[in-house]
Design brief:
The structure is a single chain. About 35% of the residues lie in helices and about 30% in strands. The protein is α+β, with helices and mostly antiparallel strands. The protein has one domain (about 5-190): Nucleotide cyclase, GGDEF domain (Alpha-Beta Plaits). The strands form two sheets. Strands 1, 2, 3, 4, 5 and 6 form a six-stranded mixed β-sheet that branches. Strands 7-8 form a two-stranded antiparallel ribbon. A hairpin with a 2-residue loop joins strand 2 (about 55-60) and strand 3. It is globular, with a radius of gyration of 17 Å.
Length: about 190
């Protein structure tokens, strides 16, 4: 029998490599695979270190979830620490790939906190774990907006509220995003910790 889906309060961290289409056109298939593995390893290792887990992969986007029921109030803080850790290690990837790529690697991260539905879809031969809800689309859109705001991490107001006592943030603006009827306040961390 299929495991039922369930609602959880979680902080989602979605990470994607900026200019990935450009990178794919420069590297060979084998090199692209190795490059993706380097990026994924950096992101997933940071998530595990800070109590997150890889929920799924959507194209070039890694979707992480911080959903500890025993420390729900810590999920936003853990996600922000994870994002900062990833940014601290991106330079290592750039150094490794500087022979093939003539630009710095950037990993853009969108973080959103709220209630989502988690569970399996495609009941047939192969099950797929998925995340459903407005915070899923919000995290994706925030990651996509990083380039526009010249930052690598953007988080929503719920994540900001959960992490503001531990980090210094600056508001990057507010925007009406697809699927939302009210403008979304957006923040970025400016120092690693208070």
């Amino acid at each position: 029998m299929d495991a039922p889906s369930k609602q959880v309060n979680a902080t989602l961290l979605f990470a994607r490599v900026r200019d990935f289409a450009r990178i794919v056109n420069i590297l060979t298939l084998k090199e692209t695979h190795e490059f993706v593995c380097d990026c994924a390893e950096t992101v997933v290792n940071a998530a595990v270190k800070y109590h997150g887990s890889l929920a799924n992969v959507a194209g070039d986007e890694l979707r992480l979830m911080f959903a500890s029921p025993n420390a729900e109030e810590d999920n936003p803080r853990h996600a922000v620490i994870c994002a900062l850790n990833v940014q601290n290690k991106v330079n290592d990837i750039s150094v490794k790939w500087r022979h093939a790529l003539d630009f710095l690697i950037e990993i853009d991260i969108g973080i959103s906190t709220g209630t989502i539905l988690v569970g399996n879809v495609a009941r047939a031969a192969k099950k797929m774990y998925t995340l459903i809800g407005k915070h899923v689309t919000l995290a994706t859109q925030l990651a996509e907006l990083c380039r526009d705001h010249n930052v690598n991490i953007i988080l929503d107001s719920a994540t900001y509220e959960g992490a503001k006592d531990y980090f210094t943030f600056r508001k990057t603006g507010d925007r009406l995003l697809l699927g939302f009827t009210e403008r979304i306040d957006m923040y970025t961390p400016v120092v690693s910790a208070k």
